[in-house]
Write a structure and sequence with these properties.
Bound molecules: beta-D-glucopyranose
CATH topology: Rossmann fold
Distance between the termini: 52 Å
Number of helices: 7
Number of strands: 7
Shape: globular
Radius of gyration: 18 Å
Order of helices and strands: EHEHEHEHEHEHHE
C-alpha cells in the first residue's frame, strides 16, 4: 500500500527522546527513510533505528550538537552519504533550564538559546542549502519541507522560564521570516506548537496526581498530549496533503492557547 511519505528522506533533530522520538517514529511509519539525530542518548537513537529497520524501513542514527555549525554540517553529510539528500527536516532539538529570573545564570540563558534558537537556525540553513543543491524531486510538490518545533510558549508568557519562552518567541518570527524568504522556491516552512505533551521534559507537571490535576486545569480538552499527537501533525505538515500551508504555526495543545482561566473569569 502506498504511504504518504514513500521515497522521501526525513531528518529529525533531537530524535532520541520525547517529541523528536515520536515524530521520527511517525514519519518512518508514513514511509520516510529517517535520519535520527541525537546529542547524548546514542542507545535510544540506535535502538529506534534498529526497530524501524526491522519493520522494513530505513534509518540511521547520527550524533551532533545542533548548536555547533561544524557538527550540523557533518550531520547533513552523513545524511547525504546514506540517502543522497533530504526532503523533510524537523528542527526539533530543545531543552529547558528553568529558574526564577533573578537567579538565572548567563550559562542557563545561553545554553537554552544555543540549542533552541541557534540550533534551529543552523539546522534550517543547512536544510535550505541542501534543498537548493539537490533541486526538485518527483517525490513531492515542494522543493523541501522544514518544520520548526515551537511551543505554546511562542505566545503564552511563562514565568520562571524566560530563557525558554524567549527562544520559542524567537522561533515564531524566525519561522515566519524564513518562510516568507524561501516560499518562492517552493520550500515550505511551518511550525508545530505543542502544548503539554507527556515527555521527560515536563515529567514534574504530570507524574503525580496533584501535579496532573493542576496541569489539566490549563487544558480545556481534558487530557495531556502524547508524542503521537505531534507525530501525526508532523506527517501531515511534511506531506503534500498540506501543500498550500506555508508559514503557519499549527498549535497541537488540547486548547491550552484558549486561555481556559478566562472561561469563568475576566
Ligand atoms: C514545555 C513543557 C510544558 C508545555 C506546556 C512545552 O513547550 O517544554 O515543559 O509542559 O510547553 O506548558
Amino acid at each position: 500500500m502506498k504511504k504518504l511519505l514513500d521515497n522521501q528522506v526525513a531528518l529529525i533533530t533531537g530524535a532520541s527522546s520525547g517529541i523528536g522520538y515520536g515524530v521520527a517514529k511517525a514519519l518512518a511509519e508514513a514511509g520516510a527513510a529517517v535520519v535520527l539525530n541525537y546529542h547524548s542518548h546514542a542507545e535510544a537513537a540506535e535502538q529506534l533505528a534498529e526497530e524501524i529497520t526491522r519493520a522494513g524501513g530505513a534509518a540511521i542514527a547520527v550524533q551532533a550538537d545542533v548548536s555547533d555549525p561544524a557538527q550540523v554540517n557533518a550531520m547533513f553529510d552523513a545524511c547525504r552519504a546514506r540517502f543522497d539528500t533530504v526532503d523533510i527536516v524537523v528542527a526539533n532539538s530543545g531543552l529547558q533550564k528553568d529558574s526564577a529570573f533573578a537567579d538565572m545564570t548567563l550559562q542557563d540563558w545561553q545554553t537554552v538559546l544555543a540549542t533552541n534558537l541557534t540550533g534551529q537556525f543552523l539546522t534550517s540553513q543547512a536544510a535550505v542549502r541542501e534543498f537548493r543543491r539537490r533541486g526538485p524531486r518527483p517525490v513531492s510538490k515542494a522543493l523541501g519541507k522544514l518544520i520548526c518545533m515551537s511551543s505554546v510558549h511562542e505566545v503564552i508568557p511563562w514565568a520562571g522560564h524566560v530563557n525558554y519562552a524567549a527562544s520559542k518567541g524567537g522561533i515564531q518570527m524566525f519561522m515566519k521570516s524564513l518562510a516568507q524568504e524561501v516560499a518562492p522556491e517552493r520550500i515550505r516552512v511551518n511550525s508545530i506548537a505543542p502544548g503539554a505533551i507527556r515527555t521527560p521534559i515536563n515529567k514534574d507537571a504530570w507524574d503525580t496526581d496533584a501535579a496532573l490535576e493542576k496541569l489539566l486545569r490549563l487544558i480545556p480538552y481534558g487530557r495531556v498530549g502524547e508524542t503521537d499527537d505531534i507525530g501525526k501533525a508532523a506527517v501531515w505538515l511534511a506531506s503534500d496533503e498540506s501543500d498550500y500551508v506555508v508559514g503557519t504555526t499549527l498549535f497541537v495543545d488540547g486548547g491550552m492557547t484558549l486561555y481556559p482561566g478566562f472561561a469563568d473569569n475576566g
